[in-house]
Amino acid sequence: MKLLMIDDDTGLCELLSEYLSAQGFTVECVHDGAEGLKQAIKHNYELILLDVMLPSMDGFEVLKQLRQHKLTPVIMLTAKGEDFDRIFGLELGADDYIPKPFNHRELLARVKAITRRIEHINSLSSQQASSLSVNSINVNFATREASVKDNVLSLTGTEYEILAMLVQHAGEVISKEQISEQVLGRRLAPFDRSIDMHVSNIRKKIAEHVSNERIKTMRGSGYVLIQGE
Q1: N or C: which end of the chain has fewer CB within 10 A?
Q2: How far apart are CA 111 and CA 65, in angstroms?
Q3: pLDDT at 205 over 50
Q4: pLDDT tens for each residue of 71-101
Q5: How is the beta sheet containing 74-79 ordered, strand by strand?
Q6: Residue 130 belongs to a domain with what CATH number?
Q7: Domain count across the chain
Q8: What is the per-residue pLDDT across 210-224, written as a single tens digit (0 to 9) for each?
Q9: Do residues 30 and 4 lie in contact, with contact meaning Cβ atoms separated by under 8 Å?
Q10: Residue 70 to residue 142: CA distance in whole angstroms
């Protein structure tokens, strides 16, 4: 698996490159935001590790412009305690975040959770094509695409996984904890708003094509996909 790390901390890049390479990943490092964006658009990476504070162009702008071209999975590297950075990154389409300083094994777990999804995609064949439609939302599990009234939604991998999970369990309340463990591959930490932000992004994209609410928040419980109009 080929990863791109965009971070101006050369020491951290060197350490992580060595650590992740030992785990079977190929890691390329760029230390400038604008140059990192060019690399991310020009080449195909399975995952991008993106720092927030970067020279020439910050991580938010890199992510914003990247999402106009590609849906490559992105893990944001944020400053510890900076809730705004995490929320804003998720709003812009980051798949996950991890605050600095972090444990290398925790980062590896996040990376593997995303790359497992990619391996699953690559293992699918056309003979396995199947889809499910609920309340004008169609999910194609083979192509990993979702659409609303024949309008394809531009979803990140994480957003797709969450919507697919809700469609498969339409009418059932799915807790944030369940979503986090199945989709992000980690337990939901206290005050972690990542699932809320991903669901908010999905709602906005669905709302571009239908007026009625499709995903309902069950206060204190989780989310449910409404089965009928």
Answers
A1: C
A2: 22
A3: yes
A4: 999 999 998 777 888 899 999 999 999 999 8
A5: 26-30, 2-6, 47-51, 74-79, 96-100
A6: 1.10.10.10
A7: 2
A8: 988 999 999 888 999
A9: yes
A10: 19
Domain boundary among 123, 138, 166: 123
Residues 134 and 111 in one domain: no
Structure tokens at 212: 């009625």
Question: Are both 110 and 152 inside the same structural domain?
Answer: no
Same domain, yes or no: 68 and 158: no
- Residue 37 has which token pair? 């964006």
Which residues have CB under 8 Å from 142's CB, separation 6+? Answer: 124, 126, 128, 129, 130, 131
| Tokens (6 digits) for 15 | 């350490």
CB-count exposure of residue 59 (10 Å: 0-12, 13-18, 19+): buried
Q: Which amino acid is at 202?
A: I
DSSP code for 184 = I
Instruction: Note the pLDDT tens digit of each residue in 13-51.
Output: 999 999 999 999 999 999 999 999 999 999 999 999 999
Alpha carbon separation from 10 to 7, 13, 54 (Å, rounded): 7, 5, 12
H/E stretch holding 27 reads strand 26-30
